[in-house]
Amino acid sequence: MNRVHEYTKGVRERAQAGGGGLCAVFLCTPLEFFDKTCYTVYTDDFCGRGRAPHGDAMDINKYTPKFKTAQKHLLHLADLTAEEIFEILYTAKLFKKKYRVGENAPVLKGKTVALLFGNASTRTRVSFEMGIRQLGGDYIFLPKNETQLARGESIKDTAVMLGRYGLAALVLRAFPDEQVIEFSEWSEVPVINGISDRSHPLQVLADLFTVWEVKGRLDDLKLAYIGDGNNVANSLIMGCSKVNMDVAIASPHGYSPDREVVERGMQYGNVLITDDVAAAVRGADVVYTDVFISMNDEDDERKKQKLARYRVTPEVMALAKEDAVFMHCMPARRGEEVAAEVIDGPQSIVYDQAENRLHLNKAVLAMLA
Q1: Which helix (H) or strand (E) holds 141?
Q2: Cβ proximity of 198 and 222 under 8 Å
């Protein structure tokens, strides 16, 4: 404890100064984290306890939804409070209940949503297109390479122009985070981040909804993510920490989540960053992974080799709780980041997870558009 690096010491001091006392970094062994050596760190009022205390507002099952939000855009989970996350999840639950009995509320009747996509998509595109139709709306699918953005038109001109054509919302996919923010600054209509380089908010909101369905709660659960510290890992840190779930990330050195995201997440909950798969998975209620090579990344054999020991296998799942479930945001590469016996086995809930993208996207559209 006497060798805590200045970085983690500063994080702890800022958390204590804020009065939350909820910041904790658990590292089972010294690890080069963000090129800085870190050791086990606790805030004073967390040390010696199972977890930091939270009020009822952090328990989704004790929350009374209002089915509304003050947010104009949905860009990153860092922008949302726990209550705003709960509002979205309760709305998704309501839409799924109606969907199951063949009911669809026409809340988008007379409205059109633009889907501006920068790369190929299956789940994001289909879930938005079908969700918009089910809610009585219409959509325009705009591949980025078929717009003037591909020829250098500015984001300002594009955002302002799209807002004047009567659109109800703009969904962006595969844009850099800086451009997503710029779109929101110039757009007169709500901007929804379908996925960006550093963030995947809709996926993780759907994941939280799925965990809530399967486990009956979010409070006091532990999610372990194994693999590349990519946009999904970043959003899991923010989403889980805000709803009182512990989150553990096991990644090799050089592939950890963004430092800024980890520091922010530590202000809300318990975050573990480690290179030890067993340390991350032990006692987990949910084990999660993603592809080794993310969207827009070139195939990288060196990266695959470093991540090879971060594959989720039956042996890895055995380290988690007996009733643990397996999640993957898909597409999946069986035999690479996950064994076929796991993703196709009885603990896997990946298809429920994928379906819930539909209900979650409908909830976001209904609340923002």
Answers
A1: strand 138-143
A2: no
DSSP 138: E
The pLDDT tens digits of the residues spanning 214-260 come to 999 999 999 999 999 999 999 999 999 999 999 999 999 999 999 99
Confidence of residue 265 (pLDDT cuts 50, 70, 90): very high
Name residue, tokens 């199972």.
50
Q: Which of 264, 75, 304 is nearest to 176 (CA)?
A: 75
E strand or H helix that includes residue 31: strand 31-33
Which domains does the chain show, CATH number per domain? 6-47+202-352 (3.40.50.1370), 70-199+355-368 (3.40.50.1370)
The answer to whether 176 touches 155, Cβ cutoff 8 Å, is: no
The sign one gets for the Cα dihedral 149, 232, 348, 252 is positive
- How many other C-beta atoms are found inside a 10 Å radius of the C-beta of residue 114? 18
Among the ranges given (32-36, 48-52, 71-75), the one the predictor scored with the smallest mean pLDDT? 48-52
**Nearest CA among 290, 278, 271 for reference residue 223:** 271
Q: Give the C-alpha separation, 341 to 193, whole Å.
A: 33
Could you read off the pLDDT of 289-330 as tens digits, one per residue? 999 987 666 678 899 999 999 999 999 999 999 999 999 999
Going by the DSSP 8-state scheme, the letter that residue 338 receives in this structure is: B
- Using DSSP bridges, classify how beta strands 169-175 and 112-117 pair: parallel, antiparallel or unpaired: parallel
CB 52 within 8 A of CB 211: no
Phi, psi of 172 (to 5 degrees): -105, 140
Annotated catalytic sites, by residue? Answer: 173, 200, 203, 290, 329, 357
- Which amino acid belongs to residue 316? V
Q: How many CB atoms lie within 10 A of CB 188?
A: 12
Sign of the Cα pseudo-torsion (230, 231, 234, 235, in order): negative
